[in-house]
Amino acid sequence: MGLCCQLVRSAERGAKTPTVGKRYRAPEGIWTVYRDRVPCGQVEVIGCTRRRGSSAVLHLAEALPFDLEAGVELGEDLLSLKRLHDLRHSSASIHLSEGGDLTLLSKRLGHSSPAITARLYAHLLRSTGQAAAETVANAVPRRVRRPSHPQSTHSDQRTRNE
């Protein structure tokens, strides 16, 4: 499971020798082709010729049934990049909704300033700010107001009528 390699040059439909960069696993075998981490087909690699640097030419059992652009990945059971990024946002959202520090979160996310984090998560900061304001308001002692004229009760009215 995992990433095998990534194309460094586009390969047209019908090609049998795509060029890839660094290989993270032995390339021989059947691999799923991923565009933006979305599976779009399979290829069978039967051999590999190393080139200068870390690149190599893969030899496919059959010609490519579709065009491949540079950046396409070969692998097995790769996680979607969208899902990984969603986890990043979820983690940040939970951090802020639980009252976490904005500056710490900004550093954790690798933002250049807390202002960027605040802009991205402003919708969460509003509710956190509201909760903080309510906490402070509840902590401030208030004077109990007493009515200036006591209201008469039902029994008081009976007493007056007798």
Task: Summarize the structure in words.
This protein is α+β, with helices and mostly antiparallel strands and 162 residues long. It has 2 domains: 77 residues, Elongation Factor Tu (Ef-tu), domain 3, CATH 2.40.30; 58 residues, no CATH class. Helix content is 36%, strand content 22%. The protein is built from 5 helices and 6 strands; from the N terminus they run E-E-E-E-E-E-H-H-H-H-H. It has a 6-stranded antiparallel sheet, with no helix packed on it. Helix 2 packs across helix 3. The chain is rod-shaped and about 95 Å long. The mean pLDDT is 84. Keywords: DNA recombination.
Topology:
Blueprint: E1 2-6, E2 19-20, E3 29-35, E4 38-50, E5 56-60, E6 73-76, H1 81-97, H2 102-109, H3 114-120, H4 122-139, H5 154-161
Antiparallel strand pairs: 1-6, 2-5, 3-4, 3-6, 4-5
Helix pairs in contact: 2-3
Q: Approximately what portion of the residues adopt beta-strand conformation?
A: 15-25%
Overall mean pLDDT: 84
Count of folded domains: 2
Parts with pLDDT < 50 across at least 5 consecutive residues: none
Percent helix: 25-40%
Structural class computed from helices and strand pairing: alpha+beta
Compressed to H and E, one letter per element, the order equals: EEEEEEHHHHH
Report the CATH superfamily of the largest domain. Answer: RimM
* Overall outline: rod-shaped
- Looking across the biggest beta sheet, what order are the strands in? 1-6-3-4-5-2
Number of DSSP E strands: 6
Q: Calculate Rg over CA atoms.
A: 33 Å
Number of helices: 5
CATH class of the largest domain: Mainly Beta
What is the CATH architecture assignment of the largest domain? Answer: Beta Barrel
